[in-house]
Amino acid sequence: MSYSGTNSKPKILIVDDEDALRFGVKKLLEIEGYEVSTAANGTEGIALGTNEDYDLAIIDLKMPDIDGITVLKSIREKQPNTVCFIATAYASYDSAVQATKIGSHGYIPKPFSAEELLHHLKLGLEKRYLILESQKLKSDRENRLLELSFERSRLNTIINSIDDGVLVVNRDEQVVYFNSAALKYLNLHEIFLGESIKDILPVKIREIIGVHFFQSENRSYSEEVELLPEKKLFVLATSTKIYQHDGTLAGVVLVLKNISEFKRVEFIKSQFVSMVAHELKAPLAATIGFINLMTQKDIQLSEEQKYDFLSRSNSRLASLLSMVNDLLDISRIEMQTVVRELKPIFLKEVIWDVLHLFDIEIKNKNIQLSFNEEEVNPIIKGDLNEITRLFTNIISNSIKYNKQSGKILISIVELQHFTIIRIEDTGIGMKSNEKEKLFQDFFRAKNEYTKNIHGTGLGLAIVKRIVDSYNGTIDVETEYGSGTKFIIKLPLMKSEELSVYKNESEIAFEKMIGPNK
Amino acid sequence: MAKIIIIDDDIDILEASSLVLKAKGFEVLTAQNPDDGFKLVMENNPDLIILDVIMIEPDDGFFLAQKLRKNGFAKPILMYSSVSKSTGLKFGVGELVPVNDFVEKPISPELLIEKVQKFLNV
After folding, report:
1. Cis before residue A111, ω within 30 degrees of 0?
2. What does the mean pLDDT of chain A come to?
3. Tally of structural domains, chain B
4. What letter does residue A108 receive in the DSSP assignment?
C-alpha cells in the first residue's frame, strides 16, 4: 500500500526517550512493512518531523527536553498532512483534549500491545490516505481553475490577434462576443455586449447572419461582401450555427475574412484575360472576315484583291502565332517554370548575335549602326535564351520604329557591380502618356507613325519581366518624333563565381573574339 | 441609297465589312479612331453607324456612342466587339451604352447584312 504517493512503504516517525520502546516498536513495525525513523528526544523529533512528510508520527508526551505537545505543534505546522499520535503512560483526559485540539489524530495510552498499536496505525494510515486524496483533488481543482482562466485569457488573446473578424450573436440577434478585427472591418468604434445587430451591422452582414434564423438548413453560409466601395475592402463573411447540448440553436458565429487583395489580383487577372481574348480574337476576326468575303458568291473580287486579302490574312495569322508564343513566354516567366540554364554570358557577344539576326532589316532600312564597345567586356550570369530574347525585343523595336536611314547607337559600360547598356534609336519616339504605359501588356503606341507597324504589344512587357527577374532595371528616355533610348542595368557576375566557370568562359571568350565587326 | 459609317481601328475588318455592304449597294464610309469617326458622322449624317468598342482605349466605343447621342445623333448604332462578356464592363443596350444592338465579332456577312437591313428597314 502506498500512502506517500509513491510505491514506497508507509513512513513512520517514532519520538520517544525510552530506548527499549523505540527499538521494540521499530522492530515490530519494520516486520509489518513500515519504514521507521526514530528520535530519542523532542529536539531530534522536531528536526526529523518537520524536515520530512511522514505518513505517521508517534510522539511521546513526556520527554526530558521538549514535551510532546510542542513537538506535535512544530510538526503540524510544517507537515500538516502527517498523521500524529500522542503516546503516554500518564493518560489524562485533559492532555488528550489538548493534543487533539492542536491536531493530534489520536491518543495511544502506554503501555500498548502490538495489536493495539497496529490497529491505531491502521486507522491513522486510512486517515492519511483520505488527507492525501482530498489534497490531491483540491490541488487538481485549483490547477484546473487556473488552467481554465489561463485558457480563457489565452483564447481571448488569440481571437483578438487573428486578422479575421469574429462576432458571435445569440438567438435574439444580440452581440455576445466580438474581436478587434471585427470592429475594424465593420468600421465600428465599439460594440456593447447585448446590443442588437439591427442597430449596428450593415444589412448585407445581417442577412448573412439571419439566414440561420429563418430558412437555412446548412450549418454554414458564406458570401463575399464589399464593405467599402471601389474594391477597398472585400470580405468573405461566413456565418455558422452554434448548437446547444440539446441540439437547439444557441446563436451564430460570424467570421469576416479580408479578401481585398485576392479580389484585386482576381480583377487584374480577369482584365488580362479579357485583353488576351481581345488581342487573340482581333486577327481571327479579320482573317475570318476576309475568308467570308472571298467565299461570298455575290461579291465579285479581282485576282489582285483576292491575293491581297490572302496575304493580309496570312500576316494576321502570323502575328497571332507570335502573340501566342509571347504569351507562352510570359506565362513561363510568371509561373517560373522556365528551366534556366544559368551561366556566364558575354553581353557584347549576345548583342552582336542579335544585330546579325536583323542584318536584312537593317540593310533594307539603311540604318547606320554604331556599337561603342569601350574597353569593357561585361559578363553576367544568366540564361542565354532569355538574355538574347531581351535584346532581340529591344533592338527589333529600335529598327521597327526607326526612320528610313536612321541610326542605332549602342553603348556598353561597367559601373561598380553593374553593367549599363544603352540602346538609342532615331525613330518615332513616344508621347509622355505612351511612355508611361510602355511596359504594360498589350500596350502599343497608336499614332500617325505607328499605323503600319505590327506587333503583339507584348515585346517590352517580356523585356521588363526578364530584366526584373535578373534584379536589373530598365529606363526609357524618349522624345516624340525624334527617338527613344533604353537604358538597361544588369548585375555583373561576381568574380569568385566566375572562376568556377573559368574553363568554360575561356572557351566562350575565344569564341567571342571572332565575330567582331 | 442608305449611308453607313463604320468606325473600327482594325483596317482589315473595315475593308472586309465595307466590301460586303458595298456589294449590297450601300454607301460606306470608314474611320479608324473615335475622333475621326466623330467628325465623319457629324459631317455626313449617316443612316447607320457600325461601331467597334475597343480602339485606342478599351472603352472608346462607349464614349463615342454617348458623345454622338449627346450631339444629337439619333439614327441607329450597331455596336460590335470581340470581347464582351469578360471585360468586366456591363455590356448591353441601355442608357450607359446608347446603342441599338450589340453583336460579337466576327460577324458573318449574312448576319451583318441582316442586321443592317433590319435597322434601315430595307
Report:
1. yes
2. 86
3. 1
4. E
Distance from the Cα of B57 to chain A's closest Cα (Å) equals: 10
Q: Which of A267, A300, A312 sits opposite B12 (nearest CB)?
A: A312
- Cβ separation A289–B106 shorter than 8 A: yes
CATH of the domain at B7: 3.40.50.2300
Which residues of chain A does B16 touch, with a Cβ-Cβ cutoff of 8 Å?
Answer: 286, 289-290, 292-293, 309
Nearest chain A residue to B85 by CA distance is A274
pLDDT range class, residue A410, cuts 50, 70, 90: very high
A374: left (phi over 0), alpha (psi -120 to 50) or beta: left
Residue A134 has a CB neighbour count (10 Å cut-off) of 11
Question: CA A420, CA A398: separation in Å to the nearest integer?
Answer: 18
Collect all residues with Cβ–Cβ distance below 8 Å to A97 and sequence separation of at least 6: none
| A281–B83 C-beta distance less than 8 A | yes
Residue A1 has pLDDT above 70, yes or no: no
Domain of residue B74: give its range. 3-120
Q: Which B residues, 9 through 68, put their C-beta within 8 Å of a C-beta on chain A? A: 9-10, 12-13, 16-17, 19-20, 23, 32-33, 54, 56, 58
* Over residues A273-284, mean pLDDT: 83
Q: Which of A234-238, A371-375, A479-483 has the lowest mean pLDDT?
A: A371-375
pLDDT band for A507, please (50, 70, 90 cuts). low
Residue with cell 511521546: A60
Inform me whether the C-beta atom of residue A278 falls under 8 Å from chain B C-beta atoms: yes
A265 touches chain B (CB under 8 A): no
Cβ-in-10-Å burial (0-12, 13-18, 19+) of A512 comes to middle
Domains of chain A and any CATH numbers: 11-138 (3.40.50.2300), 162-258 (3.30.450.20), 264-335 (1.10.287.130), 342-513 (3.30.565.10)
In three-state secondary structure terms, A66 is coil
Residue A152 Cα distances to A156, A231, A313, angstroms? 6, 36, 73
- Residue pointed to by grid coordinates 491518543: A107
